[in-house]
Structure prediction request, 119 residues.
Amino acid sequence: QMQLVESGGGLVQAGGSLRLSCAASGRTFSTYRAAWFRQAPGKEREFVGTINPSGSSTYYSDSVKGRFTISRDNAKSTVYLQMNTLKPEDTAVYYCAADNSGGSVWTSWGQGTQVTVSS
Prediction:
């Protein structure tokens, strides 16, 4: 299991931008797929997007497509979530996840970072 630590959250006005980082422990990060999820108060955890181990392929939920971009730097064992044109409904705790088991479950999770978008 890999240790993940998110950072970069904060308070931003609607229309603004933030970049979240997720730093992973271990030297095998390049074999892990990674993803971002979010959970707003009173709501279930929601998938945001995912990136494959090499970084050559990404996939996003419809709610963030065109506004958010996931990237990774395997040399730094870090995954990023660039969030542009933020909306108040993007307010949530954002979590990164990673997995290399080949299954459908995300086996490693970070502790989350709060993003608040004011109107």
Remarks:
- Residues 14 and 119 are 5 Å apart (CA to CA).
